[in-house]
Design brief:
By secondary structure, this protein is an alpha/beta fold. It has 9 helices and 18 strands. The chain has 2 domains: 198 residues, 3-Layer(aba) Sandwich (Rossmann fold), CATH 3.40.50.1170; 116 residues, Rossmann fold (3-Layer(aba) Sandwich), CATH 3.40.50.40. 28% of the residues lie in helices and 25% in strands. The strands form 5 sheets. It has an 8-stranded mixed beta sheet with strand order 4-1-5-7-8-9-12-13, sandwiched between helices. Strands 15-16-17-18 form a 4-stranded parallel beta sheet. Helix 6 runs parallel beside helix 7. The chain binds aspartic acid (ASP). The site of aspartic acid (ASP) has 10 residues, from loops.
């Protein structure tokens, strides 16, 4: 008999329409009811951890959740977490970094429509999450619509589509069709084992994401420093380019690096990777001390920087952390033709 734990955190899946609009109100018991009668070889146990719209979920909530998962993993065979879709990708990355050597399944899911709404995708998404756990997909994943995606690769790309998430620069872990869930081999190659799991839940929320537009002024970097930000992720153009003619953003990055504040560069393009050595405009960033985010998603890079700064304030050590792949976040697979 498998024992699966359902942790609920709020989101649309748990929401009802009240006077002030949709707001989370259903707890674990109701969501277990949504999943309905499941298989005879599975015991499902539910627990409400919080009940928030996920836009209210912040780094301290990731810690709370990671700690609960860590303490529960001994007594269950896997965990399903229901969560709002808006920040699910951030939470998935945070859990993936905090739960080191995770050898079990921790699967996040949610829905585009409230579970009580006609035509809701809630039950279906909870079922794909359950199949992912029972299929032994290891690590933190997002199960939604027809895909199971590595948590550090998930990005919400649609406000309405039932396939709300895409797997960026990596193949999905599994896909669902009328034959059931097909799990790919790379999803079950064990990334850890239950005995060696550790909780590394230190986090520094003082990370700013700066999306560059033509004409962004370099003074913004000084302002961020004055505000006490400890790290900055720059969403640059294309493969990691920013302007320096007239308004020298590379000089702004240099001033942060020299002050010991790490700057990570990711791309505004959803797919593809940053290569700071390709263009003159990128090389200037490298010279200014920027750390290239390769093919990481913006969400994953932001959370990784928060997590790295939770461990160290040393810029060189942060850079070292960024050159290490912890949860499948760092590599790059060109999925354009898949
Ligand atoms: N605002 C909701 C949330 O993220 C959206 C959703 O769950 O789909 O909590």
């Amino acid at each position: 008999m498998k024992r699966i734990l359902l942790l609920t955190t709020g989101g649309t899946i748990a929401s009802r329409r009240g006077r002030g609009g949709l707001a989370p109100s259903l707890g674990a018991e109701s969501l277990l009811g949504v999943l309905g009668v499941c298989r005879p070889d599975v015991t499902l146990v539910g627990e409400s951890v919080m009940n928030l719209d996920s836009s209210n979920i912040q780094p301290e909530h990731w810690q709370l959740l990671a700690r609960r998962i860590y303490s529960a993993l001994d007594s269950c065979d896997g965990i399903i977490i229901t969560h709002g879709t808006d920040t699910m990708a951030y939470t998935a990355s945070a859990l993936a970094f905090m739960l080191r050597n995770l050898g079990q399944s921790v699967v996040l899911t949610g829905s585009q429509l409230p579970s009580e709404a006609p035509g809701s995708d809630a039950a279906r998404n909870m079922h794909i999450a359950l199949e992912a756990v029972l299929g032994g997909i290891t690590g933190v994943t997002v199960a939604f619509g027809s895909r199971v995606i590595n948590g550090t690769r998930a990005v919400k790309t649609s406000t309405a589509n039932f396939d709300a998430f895409e797997s960026i620069n990596a193949r999905p872990m599994a896909v669902l069709n009328s034959d059931g869930l097909s799990i790919f081999e790379h999803a079950v190659s064990n990334r850890g084992n239950a005995a060696s799991i550790t909780l590394e839940d230190g986090i520094c929320g003082d990370v700013f994401l700066l999306k560059i537009v033509p004409g962004t002024r370099p003074e913004i970097f000084r302002a961020l420093m004055d505000m006490g930000y400890r790290g900055v992720v720059v969403e640059a153009f294309g493969s990691g380019c920013v302007h320096y003619e007239g308004r020298d953003l590379a000089a702004g990055v240099r001033s942060l690096s020299e002050a010991g504040i790490p700057v990570v560069v990711v791309s505004q393009c959803l797919r593809g990777r940053v290569n700071l050595s390709a263009y003159e405009t990128g090389i200037r960033l490298l010279d200014a001390g920027a750390i290239g985010g390769n093919g990481m998603t913006t969400e994953s890079a932001v959370v990784k920087l928060m997590w790295a700064l939770g461990k160290t304030r040393d810029r060189a050590e942060v850079s070292e952390i960024f050159s290490t792949d912890y949860a499948g976040e760092a590599g790059f697979v060109n999925t354009d033709s898949i």
